[in-house]
Structures are given as structure tokens and as C-alpha cells.
Amino acid sequence: MQPGLEQCGHILLSAPIVRLGDQVTASCFITRNCSHLGTDWRVVWKLEPELHPRERRQHLPNGTLQSTITLPHLNHSRVLLSCCLHWGNSLQILDQAELQAGYPPTAPYNLSCIMNLTTNSLICQWEPGPDTHLSTSFTLKSFKSQDKCQTQKDSIPDCVPEVGQSHCSIPRKHLQLYQNMSIWVQARNALGTSASPKLCLAPMDVVKLEPPTLWALEPSPAVVPPQPGCLRLRWETWRPSLYIEQKCELRHQPRLGEAGWDLVSALPARTSQYELCGLLPSTAYTLQMRCTRWRLPGHWSEWSPSLELTTAQRAPIVRLDTWWRQRQLDPQTVTVQLFWKPIALEEDSGQIQGYLVSWRPSDQAGAEPTLCDTTELNCTFQLPSEAREVVLKAYNTAGTSHPTPVVFLESRGPPLGRLHTTARDPHSLWVGWEPPSPQPQGYVIEWGLSPPSPNGSPMTWRMEHNGSIAGTLLQENIRPFQLYEITVTPLYQDTKGPSQHIYAYSQEMAPSHGPELHLRHIGKTWAQLEWVPEAPELGKSPLTHYTIFWTNTQDQSFSTVLNASTHSFVLRGLEPSSLYHVQLMAASQVWAANSTSLTLMTLTLEESELHILLGLFGLLVLLICLCGAAQFCCRPSRKYSLWPSVPDPARSSLGSWVPTITAEDILQLPSLRDPGMPPITKITVLEEEEKKPGPWESNDSSGPGSLSTLVQAYVLQGDPRVPSAQPQPQPGNSDQVLYVQVLGSPTGPGPGHYLRCDSTQPLLEGLSPSPKSYENLWFQTSSPGTPEPLVPHPEDDSIFEPLLDFPLLQGLRSLCDRRVQQSQEDDPPPSMLLKDYQNVPGIEKVDDVVKRLISLEMANKKEMLKIKKEQLMSKVVENPKDTSSLEAQIVALSVKIRSYEEHMQKHRKDKAHKRYLLMSIDKRQKMLKNLRKTNYPVFEKTCKELGIEYTLPPPYHRKIHRRLATKKALCIRVFQEVQKLKKQKRALKTAAAAAQKQGQRNPESPSEARSEAIKETQ
């Protein structure tokens, strides 16, 4: 601030604090002390960074200058207003004033209070409402009352919470626990005051007790232990609340699993122990309890600390399916191998700790001797030959299951019918049979490796209790390319049928090699081949077809597919005296195998046959020449066949759209290499639309240094004032062309102009529209090092250079070079094998013809996209097998986006793919935003490798409107009124019910009972 300006002026506000959006008027008084400034100064108002030059001036009688400004809408909650003096080249501040804007406080709501016996105080809390943008203070007010809070008896000191808090505590010394008191919250700021609805309550009616403490009830010899599925527990209430009658609730849930809480309510109030039943046996449970006042109002306490107890076990309740094998050791001893499987009969059937197998001879009494005590599902023991039955039991610490008798039946039943198997997949087998007559009660199916494995693993078995079925699916312990022995035994009443066996492979193997190929006969243009098929092998998939491949010396490949029953074939259409390589491939449903290669050479032509062919060829050439000459001579437009038919833009309708070229506008070319060359007045560029190559295709015909054949240019030289002698195009000429006319003067100060015309004449018809933003590869993001399209600079005199320096041609040439370079760098070599065949053993020994069929050269678009995705995955993602990370999903989306862009280049009117493209780009943008927030180094690497230019989205700001705030306040007020009406209705309903109940008990004084009930509900 300049010296002498401290007391030069001051600001006077109409109101320092106003409602948000209201009008504010400020006046700046400049005294006579500023007279030394001269006349070259003016008053400027500044509201934070913005200047407000519009102000009203008024000279007061005492010589003071008054500058007044009116702000129609103050939309800042706190802003600094400055009165400045623009003197010379500087802006000096004379005085500053702070403006505040906000809203009056809304009434606080959701006021609730709790009497805490631990702190011996009444704690109240509330919701302060929306922000007022001003400093707002809250005060908890209350007074004592004997009636229903209608009249005030004794006042209670106000409770002021700390700044930013919405709760406050009234100490015990200001309370009467059983007397009603009225409580409300008052909010105040500079714009007004509001109060919440009053709350009428007695402190003891809102008391909140402390939770009880749970304990496990200790067992004693005099008490019977709990049943399985029951728990016994006790609890201790909080000591300060022993004089309060309470009721409690208990909840429990299993410690393991995802089961929710189960609630047990209405526990006995005066007892301190409880037996909880109906639980799962041998299961750990978590228990919690809470309490509240009984028969009087109050709040529930918090849930008590958890108590973990485990229920007792119960004896197993299972059914045991059994099966056995017997082997005779000697005439008096039999070795029995017993198998069993437990089947649970109930959901909580109990845990099994072991199994007992016992046998009691028929001539002995007493305890049964134990043959096996095991935790496995099988047992091997020896019995006398006359033994026909043993007993099997499952046991745990709680007892044993019901005994299961195992009777060793004899095979006297009818056998099964035809047994057959089918391999559904490499890990399952379907076994079927024809049910015998009479129908069995069930079946026992056994399966295992054949021959058995060296480690002696037992066979897998299963019992089917449905005797009407004719097959079952085996999925347990099935591995591919293995031979399994399957045994099926029917079960009848008191007997069984003979076992039936069958062998099957879970998955058949491919043939090891193809049949050997032989040459039987050969001619000049044909060759007869034959082969001997291989004998069928066990476990090998049968052949489905043959494929013959033959290749000539020019690497031209041919193939044909034959049935599996064919053993010979004749190759026709061969060239005489030519060498061929022939190979036979035998294929099955699983795989294919190649035979040895056969090289043959066809016979040569005889001399007479050669003369006949040469004569016929000469006649054919002569006939073609005669037809061509006749067509050339009879063509009406043959006079235009020796020079191009170039359209003249000056003779079209475009000539009336551009200004007339005067004599002074003739272009002079002093910078050209040839000074004798006449001035160039028109440059016409002819374009022929051609199918654009896709991003996965490569163009071998154009190198990086060659100009694309899409563009052909002609330079028309001459004086523009001289009428052009160029012939007009024929009406039938429908070639699609564009032309550009260069206008300007080499001596003028401005650059030349390029005028492009989209004429509807036959010369210019069929122009394709400009590509969309997602179709124009010119403006797409390119990788680093890729040349960008050339844009002509206004000061560049490239129009006076040779034709190759024309900007359009340079851009097209750069675009073609870039596409070729990207295609050559990104695409894998065509000779690369498909991924499914790269790791196949012996693939390097396969013939070149077969390799070509399974290479990328013959691959479809889906496989190419898959390979491209894997290449980008290896560059961006650390673990290529990780497909769930953000960078992996971005790579997959980028490959899909490039495929959509290629499709849109060919089909510009495909709206569905356009929508897919835009949706994919938007989804990738969201993923990039998330990746940038979570892992910035990976984000940079992903954008760099994929060539993505990421732009941050603009932040979203929602402007606060007074109408929205007013509407929200009205909705809150309506909600409060509705809740208040509902509360009054509930109170009246409760009072009526209490009065009716009291009247039934004491009919003499129903009015007194009703008044007491209403008072109790309040």
C-alpha cells in the first residue's frame, strides 16, 4: 500500500451476514485525504479474485466520494470484499470487509435420551440437521414437571455441548428419577433460532442397564448330565441393578459355518440358570445375553461378552452298506475281506470314531469276540467255514449304533443280461446291463485298474438299492487312458446272483502311426495309391477317416478326405513329368497320425501328344489376339485410349463458386528448379477407393519407402486465363474422383489456398463420407516412434516443390508406411504353429503340409485375436495366466476394441458394433481410472505398452440451489409431523387397551385405572 493511503477510505456494509443467494450492498467512502492522488485514479471493487468495475459514484457535501456496489446474489458462504484504488499501473487496497452467507438453523430432530446408571447421568443426543454454513450453537434445555410436561415446575441448567458434538449429559444432581421432565434442543446462529420438538419422559423410563455375565454351569455328581444337543448355563446381573426387576434374551449360533443368530426370548426373570436344547450334537456354539426392565419401560442393554460351549456327542445313527469277498484257505478256514460305507440317516447323526466287527459262534454264549476294531472302511479276518454271519457296529464316546448283521450269501440267483460300458468323458464311465427276471433288490458295482496297481490299492465299490435301474455312472477314482475291470453283482432276497465282468477304457488312445502308403500304378496325369489298414488294438480309438496330402515342386498343396473303409485312391489332374510328395494321415475321434512320405514322378508326354498340345495352344493365342484387335477397332472411344481423360474443374459448377482469377494472380514459380517451366495453376488429385487392410493383415506389395497406389496425381500446366483445351469427360465415365485447386500468388503476402469440392457431377459422384472419430485411424493414438501424419504449415511453400511434396500425398504415404510397419511389428509370423499344437510331442517331425494346415496362415480371426491377446499379456501382465487383474482386463478390452475398429472400417453403418465399440472404450476408461488410483506404475506401463493416451475426466460439481434446500427442509418437516401423529395414535391406542384391561380387573373405578394407564404409557 502506498504511504498516505491508510486512512483514505473505509467500507460500510448493508449487512455482514445474509441468507445465501440474497442481495448485498456495500459503500466505500473516500475522504479528502486522497486528494494528493490527482485525477488519474478510479475505484474498483474486488470480490476475491474477481473484479467488479460497475459501481455508482456520489459526491457528498463534505467532499467525500461514495462508491456503492450491489451484489444481486451472494453465492459464497464466506468471501472477502475489497475496495481498491486503481492509480497509475497499480491496484491499491483501501479497505476490506468479510461477507458471510448461509441459512437459518433448521429444527434438530431424532432427539433421544438414555439414563446411564454407570455414569449416573442422563445422556441425550440429536441430529443437528443440514449445514447452515454459519457458526451455529446448540443448547439442551429442560425443566421439571409433575403433570404431562404441560406446566413448568423447576428449571434445570442448560447443557451446552462442545463444538461439533451433538450430544450432552445432564448430571444426577439435577434429576429426579421418577418425575417427568421436558427436554428439547435449541439451535441458534446469526440468522435465526429453531427448536426441536419437546420430549417428555421420566429418567428411569429410559434407563439402559449393563449386560449380564454368562458362565457355564459346572457339572455335579448329583445332577444328571445334559442330553446330546443341550447346554446348561448361568448368568450374573450387574450389581447396581440388582434391585431392578429384569427380563433377558439369549441368542446363539454355531461357531463354525455361516448360520445366523437364533433368539431365545422371555427367559425366567428370577432364575439365573437355563438349559438350552434343540442344538446339534458335538457342535461348538457362541452365546450372548442382554437384559432390560421388566413390566416398566426401558432400553435393552448391550449384548454380553460371548460364551463358547460345546454340546455333548450322541451315538451314531447310520446305516452301513456292506460287501465282502471270501477266499478258501483250507477246508476249515475262510479269509473274509469285509467292506462297508456309512450312510447318515439324520442331519445330526453323530460323529463316528471307529467300527467294530464281531462274531459269536452259535454254540457259545456271552460276549461276542471282536474280529476288527478299525477306523478304516474295510477289514480282513478269518472265520470257520461254517460261519455265515458277523455283526458290524459304528461307535463314538456316546455309544454305538444299531448292529448291522452281515450275512454271507451264496450265489443261487439268476445272472444279469448283457453288460456294456461307455466312456462319457476322461473321468467317468457309464456301465449298463439288462435286468434279470425276477427283479433284484439291488446291485453291487465294483471297479478298479486291470491289472491291479503294484501298491495294491483296493477296488472301489458302490451299492445301488434300486433294483429297477439298468445302469449307473461311475465317477469315483476314474483316470483317463486306463483300463478298468468292472464287476456287477445282483442282490436278491437271502441270495445273490453270479458276478459279471467287463473291461473298458475311460478314454481311448490315438493310433500310434498311420498305415504305410504304396504306389500301385502311375500314368502321365494320374497315380493310384493303396495302403493296408492297421489291425484294431485294445484301448486304441478306431479310425474315422483318412486324409491324403500331395504337393508339387511349386509348393502347391492339395488334399482329400476318404472314409475309413477306403484302402486305395487315384490322384488325378497331375502334370506330366512332375515330382510329387504324397502323405497319408489316419484320424480317429481322439487324434491323428501320419504315415511315411511317398515321393513319385509322373510319366512324360510322347512327341505326338506334345505336337498336338502346341498346335492347340497356338490356335488359342491367335483367337485371343483377333478378338482383342476387333474390340479395340470397334470401340467408339478409342481416341481416348492413348491419353487419360482428366476432368477440368474450371468447366464444372465449381467455377461459379470461387472468385475470378485476374491477370495479377498468375502464379510465378521462382523457386522451382526449372525456370522455364510454365506456372502451375491447378493441381488435380484423383483417388480411387480401395479396401483398407485390417490391423492384423500385412501388405507385402508396398514397402516403407514406396508411395501407395491409392493416389495418382496430375499436374496441369498453363495459363488459367487461356481457355482449356482439355477434352470433356464422357458421360459414361463414373470413376470416383476428388480434385483440389490451388489458388494464390507467389508475390502475395498470404499463403496459397486449397479449395476442396464435393461435386455431385458424374466426375465426383460416389464420394464416401468423412469417417467417424472412432473410424479415423489418422487421429488415433500411435505408439512412440511412429511417424505422425504431416499437416501443412501456413508458411510452408511445399506447393512449389515437386508433386511428392504435396501435403495430402505425404500424409497418405506416412499413413500407409505406419500401417505396414505396425502390421509387420505386431503380427506373429504366418509359419508359427497354433498354441494347441506347439507342445505336442513329435510335432517337429510332421510334414510341412500338415504344419501349414495347423499354422497361423490357416488360422481364423478368433485364433489370431487370442494370440494377439497373449502377446500383449506377456508385455503388460507379470503373470500371463492371471486374467482377473485390472491390467489383464484392460489388455483383453484393448484387443476387442482394435477388432471392433477394424470391423467399423469395413462396415461403417453397423450401428450395433459401433455401440459395442463405444461401450468397450468407456469400460476401459473406467478401468484405467481405477488402475491409476490403485497402482500408478502398472498404469503407466499398461498405457505405454498398449499405446493408450489417458485423459483425466473433468470433476463433477453440483451447485447448491436454494430451491433444493427448501424442498429438503419441507420433506423433513412433513416426516416429523407424520411421526408425531403416529406416536399420538399409538399412545391413545395403548391407553384405551390399558383402561379396558384395568376395568376388567377393577370395574368399580374404570376412570382411575384409565388415567393411571395413560400416565404409565407416557
Automatic annotation (TrEMBL):
<dbReference type="InterPro" id="IPR013783">
    <property type="entry name" value="Ig-like_fold"/>
</dbReference>
<keyword id="KW-0812">Transmembrane</keyword>
<keyword id="KW-0677">Repeat</keyword>
<dbReference type="GO" id="GO:0005886">
    <property type="term" value="C:plasma membrane"/>
</dbReference>
<dbReference type="InterPro" id="IPR003529">
    <property type="entry name" value="Hematopoietin_rcpt_Gp130_CS"/>
</dbReference>
<dbReference type="InterPro" id="IPR003961">
    <property type="entry name" value="FN3_dom"/>
</dbReference>
<keyword id="KW-0130">Cell adhesion</keyword>
<dbReference type="Pfam" id="PF00041">
    <property type="entry name" value="fn3"/>
</dbReference>
<dbReference type="GO" id="GO:0007155">
    <property type="term" value="P:cell adhesion"/>
</dbReference>
<dbReference type="GO" id="GO:0030666">
    <property type="term" value="C:endocytic vesicle membrane"/>
</dbReference>
<keyword id="KW-0687">Ribonucleoprotein</keyword>
<dbReference type="Pfam" id="PF00312">
    <property type="entry name" value="Ribosomal_S15"/>
</dbReference>
<feature type="domain" description="Fibronectin type-III">
    <location>
        <begin position="107"/>
        <end position="212"/>
    </location>
</feature>
<feature type="compositionally biased region" description="Low complexity">
    <location>
        <begin position="989"/>
        <end position="1001"/>
    </location>
</feature>
<keyword id="KW-0809">Transit peptide</keyword>
<keyword id="KW-0675">Receptor</keyword>
<dbReference type="InterPro" id="IPR052137">
    <property type="entry name" value="uS15_ribosomal"/>
</dbReference>
<comment type="subunit">
    <text>Homodimer. The dimeric receptor binds two CSF3 molecules. Interacts with CEACAM1; down-regulates the CSF3R-STAT3 pathway through recruitment of PTPN6 that dephosphorylates CSF3R.</text>
</comment>
<comment type="similarity">
    <text>Belongs to the universal ribosomal protein uS15 family.</text>
</comment>
<dbReference type="GO" id="GO:0003735">
    <property type="term" value="F:structural constituent of ribosome"/>
</dbReference>
<comment type="similarity">
    <text>Belongs to the type I cytokine receptor family. Type 2 subfamily.</text>
</comment>
<protein>
    <recommendedName>
        <fullName>Granulocyte colony-stimulating factor receptor</fullName>
    </recommendedName>
</protein>
<feature type="domain" description="Fibronectin type-III">
    <location>
        <begin position="511"/>
        <end position="608"/>
    </location>
</feature>
<keyword id="KW-0472">Membrane</keyword>
<dbReference type="GO" id="GO:0005763">
    <property type="term" value="C:mitochondrial small ribosomal subunit"/>
</dbReference>
<keyword id="KW-1133">Transmembrane helix</keyword>
<feature type="domain" description="Fibronectin type-III">
    <location>
        <begin position="218"/>
        <end position="314"/>
    </location>
</feature>
<dbReference type="InterPro" id="IPR036179">
    <property type="entry name" value="Ig-like_dom_sf"/>
</dbReference>
<keyword id="KW-0689">Ribosomal protein</keyword>
<dbReference type="InterPro" id="IPR000589">
    <property type="entry name" value="Ribosomal_uS15"/>
</dbReference>
<feature type="compositionally biased region" description="Basic and acidic residues">
    <location>
        <begin position="1007"/>
        <end position="1018"/>
    </location>
</feature>
<keyword id="KW-0325">Glycoprotein</keyword>
<dbReference type="GO" id="GO:0004896">
    <property type="term" value="F:cytokine receptor activity"/>
</dbReference>
<keyword id="KW-1015">Disulfide bond</keyword>
<dbReference type="InterPro" id="IPR036116">
    <property type="entry name" value="FN3_sf"/>
</dbReference>
<dbReference type="InterPro" id="IPR010457">
    <property type="entry name" value="IgC2-like_lig-bd"/>
</dbReference>
<dbReference type="InterPro" id="IPR009068">
    <property type="entry name" value="uS15_NS1_RNA-bd_sf"/>
</dbReference>
<feature type="region of interest" description="Disordered">
    <location>
        <begin position="989"/>
        <end position="1018"/>
    </location>
</feature>
<keyword id="KW-0496">Mitochondrion</keyword>
<feature type="domain" description="Fibronectin type-III">
    <location>
        <begin position="415"/>
        <end position="509"/>
    </location>
</feature>
<dbReference type="GO" id="GO:0032543">
    <property type="term" value="P:mitochondrial translation"/>
</dbReference>
<feature type="domain" description="Fibronectin type-III">
    <location>
        <begin position="316"/>
        <end position="414"/>
    </location>
</feature>
